[in-house]
Design brief:
Arginase, Chain A, 193 residues, four-stranded parallel β-sheet, alpha/beta, 4 helices, globular
């Protein structure tokens, strides 16, 4: 069951947002975003070295705009939590679409470096702390890693983050209807950096 009369404006999506709100939407938001905040808390307090939120990664939502099937940006909330303990946080986005909501949230700070490997060229040019690598449709594992590894290694060497957040959208895999890359699971297996 959904609320057919609820309409959330989205300039990116056109006159109406792409997805309807359901009765369980609030609970879903609480679960997803709560898991991201819990992951950041655990990292901050040394309770774990790696944390994963399989239901997170809603990187298109912006401060005042739902976008790209995303209503609330759990990644931004998690990074804000990480910034309480880490002077710098690196955000790497390997989804086929630009991580525009995260980039916008941290566009004017030098404490968060955003790196997005995507198909879209984006509306803004990152300056010093936003690295955008638009990729061509059909890119395969070998070409992807040839670009990814040197870029990320140089960013880590230069920025020296205290924490790294990685968004792994599945739409970069071969056959995904929303994507246009030809990556395999092995190709998105991020090498140790």
């Amino acid at each position: 069951m959904y609320y057919p009369d609820i309409r959330i404006r989205s300039t990116l999506a056109g006159p109406w947002v792409q997805t309807s709100l359901f009765v369980s939407s609030v609970e879903r938001f609480e679960d997803s975003h709560g898991a991201t905040l819990d992951a950041a808390y655990r990292l901050n307090h040394g309770l774990t070295d790696v944390a994963i939120n399989w239901a997170g990664g809603l990187h298109h939502a912006k401060k005042s705009e739902a976008s790209g099937f995303c209503y609330i940006n759990d990644i931004v909330l998690g990074i804000l939590e990480l910034l309480k303990y880490h002077p710098r946080v690196l955000y790497i986005d390997i989804d086929v679409h630009h991580g525009d909501g995260v980039e916008e949230a941290f566009y004017v700070t030098d404490r968060v470096m955003t790196v997005s490997f995507h198909k879209d060229v984006g509306a803004k040019a990152g300056k010093y702390y936003a690295v955008n690598c638009p990729l061509k449709s059909g890119i395969d594992d070998e070409n992807y890693l040839t670009i990814f590894k040197p870029v990320v290694e140089k960013v880590i060497e230069t920025f020296r983050p205290g924490a790294i957040v990685l968004q792994c959208g599945a739409d970069s895999l071969t056959g995904d209807r929303l994507g246009c890359f030809n990556l395999t699971v092995q190709g998105t297996n991020i090498p140790s950096l």
